Amino acid sequence: MASTVDFRTHVDQSCRYSEEFVNIYYDCMDKKRRHLTRLYLDKATLVWNGNAVSGHDALGEFFESLPSSEFQVHTLDCQPVHGKEMSRPALMVSVYMLWKVCINGLCLYVMYYFSSLWYNDPCKNSFSDQATQGQTTLLVVTGGSVKFDGNKQHYFNQNFLLTAQASPTSDQPVWKIASDCFRFQDWAS
Amino acid sequence: MATADDARYYNEHDDRVGGPQFRNRKGRGPFRGRMYSEQVGRPRNRVGPGGGGPNPRTRFEDDDGDVAMNDSSQDGTPQRRYNPYDRPNRRGHNRPDRDRRGGGGGGGGYGGGPAGGGGGGGAGRKNWFRMTIPHGKKYEKKWLLTVLKDNCAMPFTPIHYQTEGNKVQFYIEDATTANALQKVSRKITDTEGYKVTVLMNSCPPPAFIQTELKPEDLEHLKQCMAKRFDGSQQALDLNSIRTDPDLVSQNIDVVLNRKNCMQAVIKIIEENIPELVCLNLSNNRLYKLDDLAELISKAPNLKTLNLSQNELRTERELDKIKGFKLVEIWLDRNPLCDHFKDQPNYISAVRERFPRVLKLDGHDLPPPIGFDVEAPTTLPPCKGSYFVSDEIKSLILRFLQQYYNCYDSADRQPLLEAYHDGACFSLSIPFSLQNPSRSSLGDYHKDSRNIKKLKDPTTRFRLLKHTRLNVVAFLNELPKTQHDTASFTVDVSTYTNTLLSFTVSGVFKEVDGRSRDAVRAFSRIFIAVPAGNAGLCIVNDELFVRNATTEEIRKAFAAPAPTPSSSPVPTLSAPQQEMLSSFSQKSGMNLEWSQKCLQDNDWDFNRAAEIFTQLKAQGKIPDVAFIK
Which letter, b or e, does each residue of B92-104 get, where b requires 16 or more Cβ atoms within 10 Å of its Cβ? Predict the structure, then answer.
C-alpha cells in the first residue's frame, strides 16, 4: 500500500503533468491539428459528442474533418488513477455489500451474468492490456469553451485517460492518450 | 492659380491655434471678404480619432458628391461618372488636392467648439453643420430646396429641415457639402427680388440623432417590427418604416438614416430575431451604411438585403457592409447606380463586395466560380449516449440506478460499499470571477479543485479526497439532491477487462438548503474496476457542477414549453379562468405560462405565486413566458 508521502508526491506530479498536457494538447488541436494523433495511443478511443472513433487512422480522419478551432480552457482537474491493486479484504467487503444493496435475487443474477460476461471476456475493446496493469495512469478533466470555424461557440467538458508508455525515440517514458471523451454542454440543442 | 506655396504664406500670417491651416483660395486674393461663418468652417488639421486622420483619400470618399434631393440627376451627367481620384464638381479648382492635407474646398472643419480637435463630433469625418436661411420661412420648402440644389456645386441631403421663427434650419453631415451650400449664399434672388442668404455653423451632432429611443417607444417599435416580420421566410420588411401607421399614430419618428433609430432597430433584431435571413430597408433615405454595419455580427444568417430607393451615393458604402454574406441584394434607385457606365461594371462592383451574390436587383446572375479553399465548417452531428455494447449498457444503468438511489437519499453513507479503499474524488465548478458568497454555486466553491487557478500544492492536495472514508464523508456534506435519471447521457470511453471508465452528464435539483430547487447540470467521470462477480467498484470519481441553462431546466423538470401563439384551451371552469387572468396580470406572464404554473400547483394561487416569485428571482423563467 503506497504510503502517504508517496501519494502526496504522486498527486503533485499529476498536477504538473496534467497542466503541461493540457497546454500541449489544445495548442496542437488549434494550431497543429495534423499532428494531434501523435498524442494518442495506437488503439486509443475517442467519444466525441456520442460519436465513437477508434485507432490512429480513424482518429486522423476525424480530426481532419473538424473545422479549425479555438479552445479556451477554464477549468482543469486531475487525479492519479489506481491500478489493479485491490486488497482481498476490500474485495470481499465489496462483494458482500453490493449484494446487500441489490433489491432482489433476480437483479443479482442479472448483474452476475452480465458482469461475468465482461469479466471473463478478455480484451473486449482493442484497447491494450497495458491500462493500469502496473502502468501509471492519469485522469485529466477539462472544461471551457470552443469556437469551431463557421459554428457558434460551445461550452464543453472533456476528460482524458493518459498512460505512460515507453518511447522509441527517448529514454524517458511519454504520456499517451488512451481514451478521450468530449461533449458540448449544449449538445442536445 | 494658387500653389502649395500659398499654404506657407498663410502659415506665416495665421495666428489661429490648431496648427497649419490649409485653405483653398480658389484663385481669389488672400483678403477676399468673407463672413464669419465661413471662417469657422475653415479646414484644419485633422487630429481626431478614427478615420479622421490627415488622409486625403479619406476625404475623397466623402466628396464624391452628396445625394440629390430627388431622383432627377444633376445637370452635366458625364461629370458624375465615378472617379475616385478626382472630385467631380470642381468649378474653379483644377488642381488635384491629393497632396493637400485636409483637402481643399472647405474639407475638414471640425465640429464642436473652439477647444481644439474633438469637439462634439469627435469621430473623424462625421462633422455636422447647421445651415440657416434667414427669412427662409416665407419660401415654400420645395422651391427653396430646388433652387439651392440647382445652384449648389454638390448635391446634398438636408436633415431635419425645420422652421424656427422666420428662419429655416437644417443639418448637413459633411463639411465639403456644407461649404458648397454656403457658397450659394446671396447668389439666388427670390421672386421678390431679395437675395437668399445661407449661413453655415459647425455644430456637434444634433441631439435627435443621438438620443436613444424611450423604452415605451422601443416597445411600440418592436411590436411594429413584429407585424412586419414573416417567420416562415425569416424576413423583415422595413420599407418606409417612418410612415408606418402604427408608429405615426404613436408619434414615434423612426428615421432610419439616423444612428439612434438604426441602432434601436438592430438591437431589436439582435434580441428577437437573430436568425434573420431577409431584410428590406428600401425607401428609408439611407445615405450611409456605417450604422447598418453593426448588424453584421448580430444577424449572421442574413442572405438577402434590399436597399433599393435610398440615397446611397457611392459603391464605397457597400464596403462598410461587406461582412454580410449576401446571396441576394437590391440596390436599384440609388444614386450610386448612375455611376456605372454599363451593367457588367455594376455587377462587378457589387460582386467585389459580395462574391456570393446570385441575384442583383431581382435579376439572376451567373453563379460565380470559386476556389475550393474553404475549410470544413460542419461539425459531426451530436449523438446521445455511447455504451459500446448492450451488456455494458445494462451494467452501467443498473449501477447508476443504485448509486443515485443512495446518493439522492437522506444518508449517503451506504455509498461506502461502492468505492474502492483507495478511491479518489474531486469536484470542480466553472471558473467565475464572481464573489463566491454571491454566486449560487457558493456551496461548492470552497471545495472546487481547479488547478488552472489554484497553484498552491498543499491546497491542491487537500482538495483531493482520498480513501473511501474521506470520499463518502465529503459526499455526505454536499447538498441533498434529486437527480433526473431520464436526463442522463453516458459515454463509455474505456472498457477493458481491468478498467471501465464512463462519463455521466445530466441534471439534478437541490432539495434543501439555501439553494433549494436550484437546478444544476453535472458531468461526472467514474473509473471503476470489476468488483468480484457483483458489479463495479469505483476507484476514481470526478464531479463537475454548473448551473443548468433555461433550456435544460425546461426539458428536465418541467413539461416542454407551449408555442406562444395560440390561446389557451378553453376547458377551464369559471373560477379557474378568473384566477388565470388575475395570475397572468400580476405575474406578467402570458396566459399559456400562467396556466401552466397554476396547473402545476393545483390551482393554488398563493402557492403558484410563491413558486413563480422564487423562480423569477433565480432567473429561471425564460423570456418567452412574458411575450403576450
Answer: ebeeebeebbbbb
